Amino acid sequence: MTKQMIFTSIGWLGVVLCTVGYLLLSTKVIKAESRSFQLLNIIGGLCLVSIAVDNNDMPTAIANLPWMFIGVYGLGRRLSTRGATRTD
To answer: What pTM value is reported for the model?
Structure first.
């Protein structure tokens, strides 16, 4: 498998993860505060950033960085909240 095939696969994985997260949120299967939703966004965003950087597509990479870091922030808030009810 070539480097380009690997990065393309990573990019498609990112698309699938972000889309599945949004689908599950929109159909109320998961909540925005859930660990599952945040992890789908973090990992999906990271995959999309990696393919964008590999393709030297900086606008797309920069657009996906906040998406990923918002997920990190949301997950951090969720994990720091002690005694909260489980949402996923």
So the answer is: 0.84
